[in-house]
Fold:
Amino acid sequence: MNNYFVILAAGKSKRFGKNFKQFYKYKNKEIIDHSVEKSLKSKLFKKIVIVSNNARYLKKKKYPKLITIIKGGRERSDSSLNALKFIKKYNPKNVYIHDAARPNFSIKLLKNISKNLKKNKAVVPVVNSRDSIKYKIKNEVFNLNRKNSLLTQTPQAFNFRELYKLAIKEKSKINDEATLFLNQNYKIKFIQGENSNNKITYLDDIKTTKTFHGLGFDVHRLVKNKKLFLGGAKIPFHSGLKGHSDGDVILHAITDAILGALRRKDIGTYFPNIKKYKNIKSPKMLKPVVENLYKSNFSINNLDINLICEQPKVSRYRNKIINSISKLTNLNKDLINLKGKTVEKLGLIGKEKAIACEVIISISKYD
Ligand code: ZN
Structure:
């Protein structure tokens, strides 16, 4: 296990828009700490070297002993060379070079690199480009075959002596260590990288979507000689729900849940008990609210519904109700869940004189 892991974290984050990208919080951790923790957890390394110009700040983190912090250089290649010179005295067998700006690599990838390193002097993860690439030479633009275009990622791993020899000789500034090997026509073993192992360059790369939740509740009394509507579906039953509208508790609760998630008050604000809305069909109340939701660049993640009643049995009508809600909300059926709840014959609901419903919704905002 004479392997060394180098984390390059001395960049100036010019394109990121904020200073010290490596210390920016991402998934509840500073970006650099994702790499630190994964390299530690892999147990593949004798020493982990962080190249940074913020040693004083990093020391406060009290990393375990096998982590050493050294000073970075002007460019990435200078920092990388600093690290190689530093670890030379330990006579390492292999060295992995990694950019702190790639916090999303997996330990599985590390292990795959390690496995391939047994028979190769250079192992570099690559992915194919998803976009078509053009290549410009002077004023001419050429197409690159996407299938033959490889995007190199880090960690990249090398036999230490080979890499050191090449790094010392190289005078130009290079973007990654694979370049050193390619420039000298040395063989590199390319392995499958990870699409999620993208490099964080711009603040936009890690912008998280904002998610909101909304809660809805409704209850209506059951009365004879009225049709029963649940979730917009007509359900055969001895009674229907009494109300200023058709009394559809499910749609009312969904409407309120959406308004809650949007932080736009409640259903009564938009549909008060006035003559205009007498006997209004509940889909007509839900529709403008759903339209407003989609127009405001929100998407629904899921909808979970508790229908609280003794009768009718939810299991009999579940598909019918979910189909109807799916149509009314434009939401995939597999994102809607409907649970039936009885109340042990207690109270008005238990005596089949009322039906109640509660709903929770999750929505996300996109640009
Ligand atoms: Zn209602």
About this structure: The first helix runs from residue 31 to 42.
